[in-house]
Amino acid sequence: MRKKPMNADAKVFKIPLERGHAEVDCRQAVLRFVNSAGLTYYQFKLSATIEYLDAPSTNEPAVLADDGGGRHFVFRGRDGLTDKEIHLEARGGAIDYWVVARPRRPGAAILCMHYGQDGPGISDASPHAIEEFFILCPDRYGSSIPRQGKVCFKLGVPSFRFEKDNNFPHEGGRAIISPYFAALRSGEDWLGVGTMEIPTSEYGLNMTFLGGCAVTDFCYGGNLTLSPETPFAFPRITFQPGDDKLAATRTYIDRLYREGLAVPNEQWESDWGGPFYCFFSDQMYTYQVERDTQEMQGEMTMTENYCNEAFLQRCLEFLVRHAIGFKVIIIDYGWFVMNGQWRPNIKRFADFKATIAKLQAMGKKVLVWYSPYFNAEKSTNYQAHPEIGVKKRDGTPFFVTRFGSEINYQSDFTHPAMRELCRSDLEFMLSPQGLNADGIKIDCTHQPPTIDNVFHDPSWGTGEMFHYRASKFMYDAAKQIKPACCINATAGNPLFNRTYDVHRIHDAMEYNLDAYEERAWAAWMCGAGISDLDDWPSYDLFTVRANLRKIAYGAPSLYAAMRRGTGRRPKASWGYAVTPSQEELELLGSLYEVYAKAPVDLSQAVTIDPFRKVFCRRYSAGPLAGFYAATTLAGNQAVAVYDAQAAHVVSISDIAVAVPLPRGARDVRLAMLDRSRGAVEIADCQVIDDSLIFQARRCSGEVKCYRIAYALPS
Amino acid sequence: MPSHRDNGDIHIRRSGLDLTADAGAYRFEFSGRDAGGRLFDAYCPQPVLTMSFVPAVNGQMMADFTVTGVEVSARTATVACRAGGVSLALSINFTPCGLVYSYSFDAAGLAKLELGGIEGQFFQVCNFGADLSRMDLPATAAMDLQVSSRRVQYDKFFQLDGGNFMMPPYLLAFFDRRRYVGLGLLGVSDAANALDVRASAGHLGVSFDYARGPKSGRYDSPPLLICLADSPVGILQAYRDSLPPAPPRTAEQAWWRRAIYTTWGDQVYRKHIAEGRFQAEAGAEKHLSAEMIDAALAELASHDIRPGTIVIDEGWSRSLGDWDADDAKFAGSLRQYIRHKQAEGYRIVLHFNPFLVDAASSLAVGHPQFLVADTAGKPCKVARSGRDYCLFDWSRPDVREHLCRKIAAMVAPAALGADGIKLSGVKFLSDPADVLAERAYGVGERYLLAVLEDISRAVKQAAPEATIFLACLNPLFSHCFDIVRLGNTSEVNHDLYVQRAATASWLLPGRPIDTDDWACYAKVLGATTFIKALAGVPNIFSAFYRGDGRLKVQGAAGGSPIRMSAEQYRVISAAWKMHEFSRDIDRSNLRVDYDRMEFSTPPAVDGQPFARTYQGGNTLAVYRGRDIHLASLLEAKLIIDLPDGFEPIRVERVDRAGTRQKVDFRKCLGNKIVFDAQSSRDEAYYYHIQGAQ
What we know:
The structure holds 2 protein chains of 2 kinds.
Chain A: E1 12-16, E2 21-25, E3 30-34, E4 40-45, E5 48-52, E6 63-66, E7 72-78, E8 82-91, E9 94-103, E10 109-115, E11 126-127, E12 132-135, E13 142-144, E14 150-155, E15 181-186, E16 189-195, E17 202-210, E18 213-225, E19 232-233, E20 237-242, H1 245-258, E21 276-278, H2 280-290, H3 299-306, H4 309-321, E22 328-331, E23 336-338, E24 341-344, H5 352-361, E25 365-370, E26 374-376, H6 380-384, E27 399-402, E28 406-410, H7 416-430, E29 439-442, H8 463-481, E30 486-489, E31 502-504, H9 515-526, E32 531-532, H10 545-553, E33 557-558, E34 564-565, E35 577-578, H11 582-595, E36 605-609, E37 614-618, E38 628-633, E39 638-642, E40 646-651, E41 655-660, E42 666-674, E43 678-682, E44 685-688, E45 691-696, E46 703-711
Parallel strand pairs in A: 21-22, 21-33, 22-25, 25-29, 29-30, 30-31, 31-32
Antiparallel strand pairs in A: 1-2, 2-3, 3-4, 5-10, 6-7, 7-8, 8-9, 9-19, 9-20, 10-18, 11-18, 12-13, 12-15, 14-17, 15-16, 16-20, 17-18, 23-24, 26-28, 27-28, 34-35, 36-37, 37-38, 38-39, 39-40, 40-46, 41-45, 42-43, 42-46, 44-45
Chain B: E1 5-7, E2 10-12, E3 19-23, E4 26-32, E5 40-43, E6 50-52, E7 56-57, E8 60-61, E9 66-72, E10 76-83, E11 86-95, E12 98-110, E13 112-119, E14 124-127, E15 134-136, E16 142-147, E17 171-175, E18 180-185, E19 195-200, E20 203-209, E21 215-220, E22 224-229, H1 232-242, E23 260-262, H2 264-275, H3 290-301, E24 309-312, H4 334-343, E25 347-352, E26 356-358, H5 362-366, E27 382-384, E28 387-391, H6 397-411, E29 420-423, H7 445-462, E30 467-470, E31 483-485, H8 496-507, E32 513-514, H9 525-535, E33 539-540, E34 545-548, E35 560-563, H10 566-582, E36 591-593, E37 598-600, E38 610-614, E39 619-624, E40 627-632, E41 636-641, E42 648-655, E43 660-662, E44 666-668, E45 672-677, E46 684-691
Parallel strand pairs in B: 23-24, 23-33, 24-25, 25-29, 29-30, 30-31, 31-32
Antiparallel strand pairs in B: 1-2, 2-3, 3-4, 4-5, 6-13, 7-8, 7-13, 9-10, 10-11, 11-12, 12-21, 12-22, 13-20, 14-15, 14-17, 16-19, 17-18, 18-22, 19-20, 26-28, 27-28, 34-35, 36-37, 38-39, 39-40, 40-46, 41-45, 42-43, 42-46, 44-45
Helix pairs in contact in B: 6-7, 8-9, 9-10
């Protein structure tokens, strides 16, 4: 048996990294990161501190138990209640760290585990000289780290819960569930830190930098109680250097897939590529214009007056009149009686099932909105089963308020009754005996119950795991009811794959033309499959320019056609209404029409480069295998969509375009599709270097689009 | 009254109440009714644009309005009226594009004047202020749209949208699906508001608010222009053409169009990183120093970015308001530092805020009488970036004398000797309810005008060639400054700066445009840098960082700083190079088409140089005789138009070391050239297309 050295004579082990190196100082119980300029920028303390609900937090220094030949180190630590086994393992270019805890007596509830902190306060955390961090977290992706003041990012399911002293507030789980990964820069070097599992804590990676110290927290809110019989392994985190922030991020994500922790989505049905239409923003902006008060009353008033059969019909007629085609329609918030009473609101839709059937008869797939974590007090679900709500520590029900007045008790999916209600509600929405919808838009999951609530059965899963298991439960239940149904939900984090079919990239939080492509890129980096590119709150900026790009990298979605928004404004939180011009509507119609020639699907290889604004997708099979299914052109002023017979081009300006042709394409003929005259051949074009060059006109007015017909080699 | 009298453009057809006028392309017809609430109906052409000239005083419609006489001259009709026991003179002037009207009468306690109004089916309004460009009007609910230089209109619908970051033109355009109707003030008002339009169920009414200082004696209402056009740009043009001639200004100096480095971004980011307080810009003044500026210039130079002008922002003085140089930040002497930089070829511009006084400054403490007081006699406070400030009372002669002396010292060769001043913070106008020592100096916007005129005079008297930067789109103030500064961005919006630049190019033609940069958004750098180099003078606010977002409620002032990448420096250097090639090109009347993402200076006439973008602003080309220089952010086949008669003989790629490499090209589609271009994000600096002699 190997002799286990004591700290007093323990060694320092050097672990070479791609950039710089790491040192495991067994005597100090510290993992040091040294950058390529020789600067030690992060001294990660191997000790970890447990914070208890009802007991003081104490900590004894970690002592080396086994150096594992310089590859797998084991340290032992303890506090007043718990023995800790601290693991550090060099794996290829990465170093993994985790803690296994065993309490000496039962019953101590844990509030938080602080990695890299050997005492009760953040001043006991790990010293660092890290200058900047990067996270794959829309709409903020990083910041310099100040030498004073607090910077904290919390990556996971919940959207940010505001902390006044935090310099880096953000939406952690709204746009997407960010991967549990951050890249940290020192000098020219980047070091990644990532969590290798879905934890039962709130947030999957929660790092705080304050006063030159850094800590990684996993918060359990008192819901984690350890047993002396069963050691508990706290989350495994990994340190992974990279050439740059994106390379480090990719390495982490690739590892999740390589090790089978993340599994790509597989199912794809032909209609899931949309375009999607949802009349939510049309309700908002029509309400704004037709309201009879100077002040706007918000979404509740809008829903009351415009989420109904008549207005839906008005929207559909508008789309038909303007030839804006769509494949999937989402009936959003408001079709039901109230949250937790998922039955049609007959004041708004007299026969909702018939409404859905009518849309299906038009060839549309219909998704209905569902919010699994909200239950109105007077809802049938909550009235009949008050036990489905999570509780506060004082035993009173926990609720969140939306729109100023809508009180929602939050669902406790750890309770079998909640899961059964959810299953039966999904059955009502999806089954032919119920509404017979074609899928569900799952929303508001960025507001799950907080970790400091009391759950019926915390062992089922709390924190991030709560949402994963709830999502997986919903997904599996829906698929059992209707295997071809579409689950449209927001995730992104690779560990949450297979809890949805189409990944929705959620609300635009700023009036930024690039907002959606940045988010779609973040999801794409994660391997999240195909994104429903959303549209809320439907800014005018997105009407044409964003949609042109969207059809090249995902499933376009339209939330308003009659009016759009001008960007967030003081008197209208989502923006003032503005009517699109006839030209804009024609362009939108043209874009959706050419998109329909080759919609996105899971077999295509999508490329999104939001920095250089390169957007395309390529076929992986068929006669055009390896060639574009769609690509933007001329600085995103035109787009080409390809099928086996032709390229279909829409230009949003009068511009000369070079349209790549498939290899070996022959008999190339260019035609302009005129709205009144049909196809008009154009002779003034040239093939240069496998591209067809011609002067395109803006595809509005008479010009609908262009078609470049070709014959492919047999 | 004659039944018909041909009188220039105005025809009086039947009686003194029926007028017809041809005004440019549009025809105004007035058929008068001297009973009931409406005097004239005006329409142009058919169907009707109905106007009412009946005013309301202090909320009372002058319903007993009667006309007592009409006088007509070449382009003017003066209508004598009587209402409510008051005699009024209604003056109507026809400009080439519209009509201007105003009232004159003996006021007695006038607290609010409402000028008749227009009836129509207006459903959308266009705003030419800094940010909001257009919005739909509510179909029935009333909406108050106020455009003014004041920062926030808390009780108005626009709030920040009426003129937060730039002084807006007093102009709105209303669209009825057939044409735009413009409402614009042609004079600077001394009312509490400026252009204030109540839109209600298609009715548009303009009012002037004197509630905080009722008017008595002879009163002339600010002239209101009503014009018509097919587009918002047409309204801008009509408004511009209707303005009174602007007083002459100092001749432009060549250096006004050289690229700018402004220190503010580096100051704020240094503060953020050192202190960790991202939420406020206040305190950034402490981080200004000669060392910081020199480090920034060295960093920029290492990336081939060489500004010609340095704007030394807030912090050069000991405190805001005292305007004494903080020499300790400049190795003992700001004056010497400025000399030194000028000797290196830079021009130096110093920040100046005319209104704000740091409440803790020696000046505020030592001269409380210099400050605007509220009605209780206490100094008024305004909050800026998390800190309270007092306001100078410019209506006091001693304050004017004091501040003008300080301003003169900033630019006088014998004093600090800067080359100009950057006026900032003019939106912190005192409230009209505040107590000014002499209201006769000016109230409301008229107070701002008086202040800016005094500042301008002080600068030009001390150094006639010194320049004044001001974030202003209002042509009625054009004589008070030299360079239009585009101001801060309020959001991550690619179009915002160019939208502002386009308005400036129409309303202040020929004026150099400082395209600004704050809040340094990383997200819009690639998309906007080339377009800004076309629109005006490039400016960079930080040599080291860009800001990552600025979400409104939760955001960091200036965004969270992210170190600039080599690629971002290359984009800036290429854009600045293109600006060098195009610096002398006239930027008046920029052609900006957001729908098509096309931007250009007016097309060349007689072979004059011009500049334009291609590929949605991703490529910027400068045409000059037999040379076309261009840079592109794309790695793609570039297809570029050739001027008539231009025969390309050579295309070269120029890298940053000046090495030229020949590039294969083809002519195509008649008068175009196509070649494979590399992006200026990478090694390519720019391309040079040479034409045959």
